[in-house]
Amino acid sequence: MEDFSNIPQLTLRLFDFNVDFNTETIIMTWIVMGLLIVFGFLATRKVSFIPNPFQVVGELLVSAFYNLTKDTLDEDMTKKYFPIICSLFMFLLLCNWLGIIPKLSEPTKDLNTPLSLGILGFLIAHYSGIKTKGFIKYAKEYCDPIFFMAPLNIIGELAKVVSISFRLYGNIMGGAIIIIVVSHLIYSLILPPFLIMFFGIFVGSIQAFVFTMLTLVYISLQVK
Amino acid sequence: MLDVFSYVKACSLVGAGLAIGLGAIGSAIGEGLTAGKANETLSYRPELAGEILKTMLVGQAVAESAAIFALVVAMLMFFTNPVGKPLLAAWAFLGSGLGMGLSAIGSGIGSGFVSATACEGIGRQPAAKSAINSLMLIGASITQSTAIYGFLVSLMLLFIGFPESADISRSFALLGAGLSTGFGGIGPGIGEGLTGSLAVTAVARNPEQVSKVTRTMLVGQAIAESTGIYALIVALLLIMVV
What we know:
A: two-stranded antiparallel ribbon, B: mainly alpha, 0% strand
């Protein structure tokens, strides 16, 4: 039962450095990206007034997230940030749902995926903050009540990245471990499908939405 | 004279008891709060019995997940084979049980707050039930995150291979890692639960403002959680560095 702490790795030797690739995570991420590209192709292939099923799902997702982004950011900012918010949600949702297919595993089960997405959101938020407010006003916010609070504010900003990525990672990893352990204890009788429904589909959707919303909220905090 | 095997086995059994014994407290209180509020709401809106029952059951399922994490950790410790583990593993088992059990208390109580006010809010404003339900799920699942951190730290303590060493400071560092995530998880869990429950009440009073309330709730919960993050970082340092 100790195999879930090991991640399959491919190590290459490159000029005195070891370069590690987490092969399983990379392949699963490619599968998710492939599925998303196929979905996008099917949804936009024959755009018509009477839509095909893929177009309906695509329109639902896009309109729901457009309204969500518009409520949080301003109208002109929305056009700029809405694509990344919507694609982040679709990517995370497919990542979290991938584990319900046998032999496949969630890319979010590896801490590297949520952490890199969290750092991406952090960089986008701070870049847009500097761009809209100017660097001086942006830097002034760190010394908000009084100047020696700056280290605490910086630690608080960095803690956001840790919390957003560990929340997603912990939920998905914890769900996967619970499914393995309970299936092992009861010899895979009856219960595992319900556990997979709960931790895979229900918790996976909620966590994908929470991650997306938090990224959006962090951007809006910097922009406003 | 006891040998290492007996020590490790004994500590794994104590750890299993600590994990599920402490971990059951919070979830039970939270679920009881939810059921109480549901009953109270039913007394003046009996025609909404089906809706309130559904919300109560979903909210209780979310509040119970902290206790389920604790149960899984307890089962893992109970069935782990202690043959060939060094003496440090005994301390790691104790730390693991304390970390999981204590951190589940806050999350269970906090999620209970959120789902209790969701039942009340549906009685107050049945037209906004989908907004209230989704806000309850988001708020309660963020409240769970400190229990998740406790779960991660206890799994690390269970499965990391420790060297053969009689260093007393290393042993207490492993115990301290569990105590850090455990006690660090209680406050953020309850605080995030308070935020989430008042946000649900606010949406029930004024469903028009759901996006603003959601945004403020997420920011507030993220900030309330930062002390839990500090506890997690200290625990990771204690496991990895000391």
